[in-house]
Write a structure and sequence with these properties.
- By secondary structure, the chain is mainly β.
- The protein has strands at about 5, 10, 20-25, 35-40, 45-50, 60, 70-75, 80-85, 90-100, 110-115.
- A six-stranded mixed sheet has the order 2-10-9-4-5-6, with no helix packed on it. A four-stranded antiparallel sheet has the order 1-3-8-7, with no helix packed on it.
- Strand 7 (about 70-75) and strand 8 (about 80-85) form a beta hairpin.
- The termini are far apart.
Length: about 120
């Protein structure tokens, strides 16, 4: 069955960086686009970024453009999200999602990112 396991979250000061990873199994990773989503306290799940199956085409929500970088290593079945210049409003649980729809049925358990001084 599909398994997605995120890691790399934590507490970071504003302006800091984190790199999230998502290890995928149970499906053919290199045939699937992948998405990062996030959910802040009291808010709904929102789309952050999507990458195509080959890693050559990416999209970002406006608020993270030029700060976040999505990438993938198909040989390692791993999806990444490099987050730079983090802001308090980036505080959320971050999820790795199979496909392009953030509310899709296959997502990981999430990793907490907290940005605070």
């Amino acid at each position: 069955q599909v398994q997605l396991v995120e890691s790399g979250g934590g507490l970071v000061q504003p302006g800091g960086s984190l790199r999230l990873a998502c290890l995928a199994s149970g499906f053919t990773f290199d045939t699937s686009p992948m998405t990062w989503g996030r959910q802040a306290p009291g808010e709904g799940l929102e789309w952050v970024s999507t990458i195509d199956r080959g890693g050559t085409s990416t999209n970002y929500r406006d608020s993270v453009k030029d700060r976040f970088l999505i990438s993938r290593d198909n040989a390692r079945n791993t999806l990444y999200l490099q987050m730079n210049d983090l802001k308090p409003e980036d505080t959320a649980v971050y999820y790795c999602v199979l496909g392009t729809v953030v509310s899709g049925p296959h997502r990981g358990q999430g990793t907490q990112v907290t940005v605070a001084s």
